[in-house]
Amino acid sequence: MAKKSFKRNGQEYQPPYQFWRECDFWADECVSRGMTFMQRHLYRALLQAAFYCSTRPYLPINDDELWKLADAGDRDNWVKNKDAILVKFQETEVKGVKVFSHRRLLRDWIKLIEGSEKQSKRRKGKQSKKAKSTDDEEPLDNVGDSDVEADENEL
User: Fold this and answer.
1) Are 74 and 67 within 8 A, CB to CB?
2) Would you state the pLDDT for residue 131?
3) Inside any domain, residue 80
4) Based on the structure, what is the number of domains in the chain?
5) In sequence order, which ranges of 16-55 are alpha helices (DSSP H)?
6) How far is Cα 80 from Cα 84, in angstroms, rounded to an integer?
7) Is the pTM for the entire model greater than 0.85?
8) How far apart are CA 98 and CA 101, in angstroms?
9) Which of 3, 21, 67, 122 could tie 72 with a disulfide, CB 3.0–4.6 Å?
10) Does some domain include residue 140?
């Protein structure tokens, strides 16, 4: 089995879940007091989409992609609301491509990668222990259905 590399912006890694602390989301006054319900929805959708889109853990800069990732319904809704949302992101360049970055997203992405690597090392350790212990033992005979006795009255 080929070893996966986490060094290429994590593109081969797709997280099984996403960290989400609702308190962090609402603690930001810009979100809780400065955004409308629609802007909060679009912002939340972008934060969640950043973990699974093609530029993960970053977001593309292109409005044609962003309105879809933000679940805006249509491009016009995105254009009306994007200024209040994009203040939460920083434009950066990764491998020659301009993308939007978000501090909390990057923190959570690093935690996910570290957790995944830790679990992978644990699994590899268990597999090597299991391989060593089974190499020394004799294989057990297969037990057929006719060899199993059951008292159907006890059921």
Assistant:
1) yes
2) 63
3) yes
4) 1
5) 22-27, 29-32, 37-49
6) 9
7) no
8) 10
9) 67
10) no
* Distance in angstroms (rounded) separating the CA atoms of residues 47 and 19: 11
User: What value does the mean pLDDT take over residues 59-81?
Assistant: 96
Q: 116, 110 in Cβ contact below 8 A?
A: no
* Strand ranges inside the chain, DSSP E: 59-60, 90-94, 97-101
Boundaries of domain holding 93 = 22-108
pLDDT interval class at 29 (50, 70, 90): confident
Look at the chain and count its residues: 155
CA 61/CA 74 separation, integer angstroms = 17
Helical packing angle, 37-49 and 75-86, nearest 10°: 80
In this structure, what DSSP letter does residue 50 have? T
* Cβ contact 107:113 at 8 Å: no
User: Tokens for 3?
Assistant: 């070893």
